[in-house]
Amino acid sequence: MASNFDIEYKRLNSAQKQAVDAVEGPVLVVAGPGTGKTQLLSLRVANILKQTDVSASSILCLTFTNFAAANMRSRLNALIGPSAHRVVVRTFHSFAAEIMNQYPDYFWNGARLSIAPDATQIEIIQDILGSLPLDNPLASRFAGSLTAIKDVQEALKLTKEAGLTPGKLAAMINYNTALINQIEPQLIELLSPTLSAKRLPELEAAVLGMADNDIADIVKPLKSLTDVLKSSIVAAVAADAGTKKTTNTGAWKRRWLQTVNGQKGMYDERRRNAWWLAVANVYADYRDALHLRGYYDYADMVVEVISQLQQEPELLSSVQERFLYVLIDEFQDTNAAQLQLAHLVATHYSNADQPNLMAVGDDDQSIYAFNGAELNNMLNFKETYPATKTIVLTENYRSAQAILDTAQAIIEQADDRLVNRQPELVKHLTAASDAPAGTIEHRHYPTRDHELLAVADAITKAWPLPGEQTLAVLARSHDSLRRLSVLLNDRQVAINYEQQNNILESEVVQLVFLLAQTVQAIAEGDERQVNVLLASLVRYPVWGISPTALWQLATANYAAPHWLDSLLQHDDEALVALANWLLWLSQSNAPLPLLIEYLLGLRTGEHLTSPIRAHYLALPITTTYMEALSAIQLLVTLSHEFSEGEAGKLHDFTRFVDLNSGLQRTVTDQSWFTSGQNAVQLMTVHKSKGLEFDTVYLLDAVEDTWQPHSVSRKPPANLPLQPYGELYDDYVRLLYVAATRAKSSLIVASFGANEQGKVVLPTPLVTNALETVTVPGNDVASATVVLESALRWPRLETSDEKILLASRLDDFYLSATGMLQFLNIAGAGPQNFLENQLLRLPGPTSAVMSYGTAVHAGLQAGQLLVNDDMPPLPGVLERFATVLRGQHLAEDELERYLPFGEAMLTDLFTTKCFALPKGGLAEVTLNDIYIGEARLGGKLDHILTRDNLVTISDYKTGKPLNSFATRDQTKVVKAWQHRTQLLFYALLVSGASRFAGATALETQMLYVEAETDRELALQLIPSQAEMERIEGLAVAVWQHVTDLNFPDTSKYTTDITGIMAFEDDLLSGVI
Asked: If you write DSSP's letter for every residue of 95-135 in order, what string do you get?
């Protein structure tokens, strides 16, 4: 009987088979849209396993998005079965995080750093820029405020994505400056005569004859400035060849040489390099400040891993020997840092010239240039690996030929393409699908409002969609999508739309900030500000103040306002309580996170408990409810993050919000709005990458939206630091991606006048490729309807609980905590899971949990010290105290837990028979573990590997258990919880590719507060039957969760008997 692999392999075309069969050596696959690249990658992995004796865990697949990673895992599971979960499929960032987690001693001297919150990043950048000399280009101010904060943040991000540390960036700038000093006189001499077509070959030869300045290997694959100068003159002269003109060469001349005060020179390039050298200095200070506070930047992960792989031969050897085959998806979107990481992993000394590295991509679909991705990645691949086998996929299995021809007309408007650089490549796509040809046209409307109404009406007529048909509306930005979503929702058309909300604009967050400002104003004695703020505050319905009382307050404070006194002296006890509560808060020295919890009503304060939490939780589960919950959660998280910095007071927090508003920064909350089945998809063009739909509408195809806009900051010519949107080709490729999402129909919409009445033109990218149909206003709707639509405030609302909850499952994985919450019907079971795992209802900070977090952090620090042959206890105590103080406990709680924990840890290491083993791994994160379709994950306290035996340890505070089979009815549920948790961790380790070589597994609970040595450890060696049961339960719980099936458990007793009966029913499918 033929295997799944054999069946799928026979379906491949000849080019795909070449790629799948090319198991060894470097392979570059140029794969146009819809050419089956994901299936190809999956089949190649299966073929590697079939043709070689390597294990699945030796294959690394790097993808650009989590969606692509999940898609590949699903394909692999269908092709090769259970062993698929051992293939390492990661995004570049998750792979870097895995290396950092697996080899912690190599990073920051073993210190465990956290990802820096935005608040801390802005604060540090502001402090650094504020301390710069006034002649520094980054120290500029306007009206007293620093003007370069946003530019510097963006520059730091781009620099990291280019794979540059501060030292590497400064080195590149110094290389550039030296070269400019060297070649500037030569360029001035060469370019002083007037350009003529006849002289172009002579000019080209002279430039090519200039001396090279080789750059250090450590900054490759970046190019030297001479490389860029020479390649650009070759391209310019080639573009002018046969035209008898010097148009392109003239532009090249102006790019490299300018005249200032009558003197010629490379002024632009010098200015660019000077600015970025200043950035390099700030970058170094920024990293030092972050590390000093215990943070690293999210973008640091890949750069740090590259740096350590280059500096630590043992680490590099270990990683290279683990991964024998590397595959990269969406190669055109990889930035220089990501490409360098893949190169380091794949290029073992034994195969340096011919690594087993496959890259699959399409330069025409590169839409992430802001990440440093560029055409050069694909060109450099062949230069780096001369033995590269290049395969071009041109058979499209998605779209009708008419769609492909339209897309071809679009992409041919791009100037810089791989086919232009390498004419031997042919990329004209041919249809290999049976997709019928549909409507393909450009519709031009009088105004934007007419456009949106017309599209809404057309979609309403087509909905519900027949059979399995799909329809998507794409746009460059969210503004039109948000307005269209309201129009469609009003027409009862089911939609699926990922909204981007700024929580600073959320009603509940604005209320909390108003409260914070009021408390701060009272504390500062600013009565004028108190009057203004209280007058706004009391109007919110959460306080339940009657209209009569509001009028009384307003009239009493009309002539001589004293709003706080009026509240304190009011007959209404609720108003008096509110005033006293505000006064109490203004006098509080509680940490910021606790103050925020008081303001939200998560904690009970003196005089009253804030009604905010109760008000929003009393709402039915609707869109408003979900948005409020999400905003509250983000606000609590933000307050904790902000308090990690030096500025952790209420005043600093409100100032931070004002700073964000001044910089026009948003604190974004992304949430899905889904209103039914067979939904119309609304998304940005970037979000649509990798997807396909029968019909695609593209909104706002006007010049203003689809052309470059001037920018003030340009990078040195040889550094990939150019943000997206500065080149016309960026928009050509983006439009090409949008068009190739369509199978049959592509309707592009534009308009002739914007909201201000300004005339706008359709983008020529569309008019050059599609037939235009001009739609008069009277064919759409009456002027009144259009005006009413434009004036309405966009609002989406639905009350379908299942649809709303489904959006929470996109990135969900089942953890040990989640599994226990679902199964433990003694603690409300599935309902508890729903509230805590999916709704994530906010609650107050728990002192017990904060204490446990600090204990775990201390033991983690101890393990790192033991691994470095250092005594652990001093570091354990220091880390415990630091983390506990950072948990923002109330003062009395800190005074209670700090000495208790220090005494307990000291006793643990000095009196008890407790020792951390050298080579142990602490706080090990294992994510994306698949058992069938169930996605599992979690963080394990401690793992030790010895001679293929893996020992999993979990630390527990509190009283120990003597046995997992205890008959003490007061402990039996606790014993079940601990046993189930250990079995779940065993399931995670058994499914993790990094522990694929283990042949034996044992687990244990370590009760760190045990009074005797005998009680310290409780061991569990999982049996085959236990592992099968926990696996079955994980799959069953996952199925219930993804089906949003939270069964009524009232028929079960709320004890261990009921829990076991519930488990049995889950396994048998009874419930």
From this structure: HHHHHHHHSGGGSGGG---EEPPHHHHHHHHHHHHHTS-TT
Give the distance, in angstroms, between the CA of residue 533 and the centroid of all CA atoms in the same chain.
37
Q: Cβ(699)–Cβ(688) under 8 Å?
A: no
For the domain covering 504-647, report its CATH number: 1.10.486
**911-938 residue pLDDT tens:** 888 999 998 999 998 888 888 889 999 9
Contact predicate 809/1039, CB 8 Å: no
Count the alpha carbons within 13 Å of 213 in the hemisphere toward its beta carbon: 20
Domain boundaries along the sequence of the chain: 4-112+311-393, 117-296, 441-494+675-791, 504-647, 816-1068
Give the Cβ contact number of residue 115 at 10 Å. 16
Closest by alpha carbon to 726, among 298, 154, 339, 235? 154
pLDDT single digits (tens) 781-811: 554 554 454 444 444 444 455 665 666 677 7
Paired with 28 in beta bridges are 359, 390
Q: Which CATH architecture has domain 441-494+675-791?
A: 3-Layer(aba) Sandwich (3.40)
Q: What amino acid is encoded at 984 in this protein? A: F
pLDDT in tens, 198-251: 889 999 999 998 887 666 565 566 778 888 899 889 989 988 988 989 999 999
Question: CB-based burial of residue 830 (10 Å sphere; 0-12 exposed, 13-18 middle, 19+ buried)?
Answer: buried
Structure tokens of 231? Answer: 């390649």
CATH 3.40.50.300 fits domain 4-112+311-393:
yes
Q: Kindly provide the b/e burial profile for residues 225-264, where b requires at least 16 CB atoms within 10 angstroms of the residue's own CB.
A: bbbbbbebbebbbebbeeeeebebbeebbeebbbeeeeeb
Taking residue 150's Cβ as centre, other Cβ atoms within 10 Å add up to: 14
Q: Compute the distance between CA of residue 437 and CA of residue 443 in angstroms, rounded to an integer.
A: 18
Tokens (6 digits) for 126: 């502001």
* Secondary structure of residue 82 in the 3-state scheme: helix
816-1068: CATH topology: Lambda Exonuclease; Chain A (3.90.320)
Report d(CA 657, CA 300) in Å as an integer.
Answer: 25
Q: What does the alpha-carbon distance between residue 568 and residue 112 come to, in Å, rounded to a whole number? A: 50
Structure tokens at 644: 């990690």
Q: Are strands 495-502 and 668-674 parallel, antiparallel or unpaired?
A: antiparallel
Alpha-carbon distance of 745 to 738, in angstroms, equals 12
In DSSP terms, 41 is beta-bridged to none
Pairing of strands 325-328, 357-361: parallel
Percent of the chain surpassing pLDDT 70: 87
Rama region for 656: left / alpha / beta (φ>0; ψ in -120 to 50; rest): alpha
* Backbone φ, ψ for residue 59 (5° rounding): -110, 125
Does residue 614 register a pLDDT over 50?
A: yes
Closest CA to 700 of 1043, 458, 447, 916: 447
**CATH topology agreement for domains 4-112+311-393 and 441-494+675-791:** yes
Strand partners, 668: 502
**Helix (H/G/I), strand (E/B), else coil: 10:** helix
How many alpha carbons lie under 13 Å from residue 40 in its C-beta half-sphere?
A: 35
The three-class DSSP label of residue 1004 is strand
> With contact defined as beta carbons under 8 Å apart, do 755 and 706 qualify?
no
* Strand-pair category, 258-260 with 693-698: unpaired
Q: Quote the CA–CA distance of 365 and 375 in Å, as a whole number.
A: 10
